[in-house]
TrEMBL record:
CDD domains: NHL. PROSITE patterns: NHL. It holds the Pfam family NHL. The chain crosses the membrane at residues 34-56. This is NHL repeat containing protein. Keywords: Membrane, Repeat, Transmembrane, Transmembrane helix. Gene3D superfamilies: TolB, C-terminal domain. GO terms for molecular function: zinc ion binding. NHL repeats lie at residues 118-157, 176-207, 363-406. It comes from Rotaria magnacalcarata.
Length: 417
């Protein structure tokens, strides 16, 4: 979720109050003094009523500031009544990060979801081949639990998940999913799921387990096997469609996708992709793609379908620090550094903006798969929380691992490159 932008939701509310008139009983006997008194009282009453009406029908200015983590502040002036809502969303992602350039992470992982010993299961404390994760501002962890055909969420410091979407059996009803492979939460709290084997994108509003179809495969809207799903701060949805070797964007309230990159056939050219998996969009709207089949990470600037390689070497798999072997997920930090789930090498790699310097191994650097706290087995996704802690979807071990960012004791150099 994270991505800091300011969203304005203007709303003007005016309150109308009915002024009810009071009836007076007529007197049978009127004297001049009484008539004068009555007339004077009426004049004063009309004047007071006019003042009261102007006051009540005036415009009082209220400014309400709200965020996902704060309450409501109201400021009122005496003579005006205009309500304007300023809602500041604080999604977690590149915009919320402040990771030092020389940051390091603990090599030993903490299991925050699933079974630490690497066993699978279908109860709410277990996972089965999870594929995608999302962390919101409250450190709530959302997981696309592929082989359990569901999405679950774990609140911070809990050991059991809560069912968010899917009922555990594969199907295509509004209550079911079939091998979900991407999950994110939009700015309104809806959980968006790449329902891969149903070839559709589902939206689950807060508090409901019945999904609404945002987009579905059709002859006029080709949507193949989705490997990942990302949402930017404008609620645009990006899905990696490995069947078509491209990344497609869906804008809000429009179920027809717009192919962004990779619509030039399968290959290793600068405008091509081969079995793409993960994707990520940074604060400049640059798109990063884990080009799995080409052993590289491609970066596409806004409006361009020409990619530049920012990690790995095209069509050259390997285990050295300059090479990747089945890059399957990518994210980026506030420095523009990329973090990659290097699936075939069972490790997490970092590349700075100095591409030619090669990468740095962060986690799983022995290259040997396993279920110990320092090992990974077929890592599938990598994300940050708002503090810079690194989360890995350790798919082969059916668990999610958290690696704590280390305290920096010296001044870091500026971003390289």
């Amino acid at each position: 979720m994270s991505d800091q932008r300011l969203f304005w939701a203007p709303a003007v509310h005016q309150s109308a109050f009915d002024i009810q008139s009071c009836s007076t009983e007529k007197q049978n006997v009127w004297s001049p003094s009484v008539i004068g008194f009555v007339i004077g009282a009426l004049v004063v009453g009309i004047a007071l009523a006019a003042i009261l009406t102007l006051y009540l029908h005036g415009v009082t200015k209220n400014i309400i500031e709200a965020s996902l983590n704060t309450g409501t502040t109201v400021t009122t002036t005496a003579n005006t009544t205009t309500t304007t809502s300023i809602i500041t969303f604080v999604p977690v992602g590149i915009y919320a990060l402040n990771i030092p350039t020389c940051a390091t992470w603990n090599y030993t992982g903490i299991t925050v979801a699933g079974n630490a010993n690497g066993t699978s299961g279908s109860d709410l404390g277990s996972l089965s081949s999870p594929t995608s994760i999302f962390i919101d501002n409250n450190n709530t962890l959302y997981i696309a639990d592929r082989d359990n055909h569901r999405v679950v969420k774990y609140f911070a410091n809990t050991t059991s998940g809560i069912l968010v979407a899917g009922n555990g059996t594969p199907g295509n009803t509004s209550f079911q999913l079939n091998s979900p492979k991407g999950v994110a939460v939009d700015q309104y709290g809806a959980v968006i799921v790449a329902d891969s084997s149903n070839y559709r994108i589902q939206s689950f509003s807060p508090g409901t387990v019945s999904g609404t179809t945002i987009a579905i495969n059709s002859s006029s809207n080709i949507l193949g096997v989705m490997r990942d799903l990302h949402i930017d701060v404008n609620n645009n949805i990006y899905v990696t469609d490995s069947s078509s070797n491209r990344v497609t964007e869906f804008i809000p309230f429009n179920g027809i996708g717009v192919p962004l990159v990779g619509s030039n056939g399968t290959g290793n050219g600068t405008t091509q992709l081969s079995s793409p998996y993960g994707n990520f969009v940074d604060d400049n709207s640059s798109l990063y793609v884990a080009d799995f089949g080409n052993q590289r990470i491609q970066k596409f600037l806004l409006g361009s379908n020409i990619g530049m390689t920012v990690a790995g070497v095209s069509s050259m798999p390997g285990s050295t620090l300059s090479l990747l072997n089945g890059p399957i997920s990518v994210t980026a930090d506030n420095n523009g550094y990329t973090y990659i789930a290097d699936n075939g090498n069972v490790r997490i790699m970092k590349w700075t903006t100095n591409y030619t310097a090669g990468g740095t191994c962060l986690i799983g650097c022995s290259g040997i798969s396993g279920s110990s706290p320092t090992q990974l087995y077929s890592p599938r996704d990598v994300k940050f929380d708002q503090y810079g802690n690194l989360y890995v979807c350790d798919q082969g071990n059916h668990r999610i691992q958290k690696f704590l960012i280390q305290t920096i004791t010296s001044t870091c150099p500026p971003p390289s490159g």
